[in-house]
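ARCHIVE CARD
CATEGORY: sequence design from structure
SOURCE FIELD: tokenized fold
FIELD CONTENT:
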């Protein structure tokens, strides 16, 4: 198992189930509505490596039915979802997006792992990925490439 080149802080908890006032809340009128996904906070630190990169984003499910991230694809290379378990990474399959909950990929926790890069993403560019969900189908996300040391403000 290869390690990320960028230093990461190891935190526990791959999934954060509860939202915390991210500012883009929407009235939820149906108790048992379908999964209703939105993606926020996507970024990729400019990779140090020529062949690998990590991506982070949050998937929010405003619906009343859970969904599942089954796979991720991108034209820049191969993408898998990784979770961090006991300070090492492992591939995660079929990751749940709970009803009225979130799937969070963040530095030190779960992340999107880009490997076999066909080109090295540079700061200011965007990387397009397709998130494939069991219920909601494919969601395309443009991930902006930030500086190698970028870390998002948490908004708390
Ligand atoms: Cu990884």
């Amino acid at each position: 198992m290869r390690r990320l080149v960028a230093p990461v802080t190891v935190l526990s908890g791959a999934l954060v189930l509860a939202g915390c006032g991210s500012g883009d809340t929407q009235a939820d009128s149906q108790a048992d509505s379908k999964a209703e996904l939105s993606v926020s906070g996507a970024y990729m630190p400019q990779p140090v490596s020529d062949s690998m990169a990590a991506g982070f984003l949050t998937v929010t499910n405003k619906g009343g039915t859970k969904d599942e991230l089954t796979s991720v694809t991108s034209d820049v290379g191969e993408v898998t979802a990784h979770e961090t378990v006991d300070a090492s990474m492992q591939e995660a399959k079929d990751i749940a997006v709970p009803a009225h909950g979130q799937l969070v990929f963040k530095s030190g926790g779960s992340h999107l792992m880009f490997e076999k890069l066909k080109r090295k993403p540079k700061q200011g560019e965007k990387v397009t990925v397709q998130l494939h969900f069991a219920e909601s189908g494919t969601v395309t996300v443009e991930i902006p490439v930030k500086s190698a040391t970028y870390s998002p403000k948490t908004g708390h």
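CARD ANNOTATION: The chain has two domains: 2-31, 34-146. The beta strands are 37-45, 53-61, 67-74, 78-85, 88-91, 95-97, 102-105, 111-115, 126-133, 137-146.
SHELF: design records, drawer C
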